[in-house]
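Cross-check.
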Amino acid sequence: MKQIVLLRGVNVGGRNKLPMPALREALTAAGMQDVVTYVQSGNVVLSSDAKPDALARECGRVIEESFDLRVGVVVRTRAELAKVVKLDPLGEIADQDKLYQVSFCASKPNARAIAKLAERATGGEQLIARGREIYAWFPNGVGRSKLAAQLSKQDLGVLATARNWTTVNKLLALASA
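Predicted model, tokenized:
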């Protein structure tokens, strides 16, 4: 079964350096198949019969043992990622894929935490939570957004990692190949 492995905080700002070719080799050596990475920020598509939570734990273990890094790992099946793309609740307003993000959470985030985050939205920003995903639109850019900064601080009570809409769609295409 094709699954998408999303790593939190690798190769960002010089921290948690994790070379993708070495990661592919380590995951393949651990028994995962058809391992492909996309860009340098910890996006992996692979085949595994493991359940997503078990695969997340196994990938985390492999990364820690092989690279001495402890990073958050969130996994979605190809079918789950296809549902994320199909839902696309902000697609009618989000006209720049790089400014449209999906945060993938390990479990459903706390509703109060989401409401508190939504209060930070300014200048046309929008935030919609659906299940384990949080869709966010940053029309004036992600870098200066207080909402984006707060979202990245992990105040949701669950592990989360964000990807822009371009990356989400590319990962779905890779998982569908």
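The chain has two domains: 2-78, 81-176. The first strand starts at residue 2 and ends at 7. Passed to J.P. for a second look.
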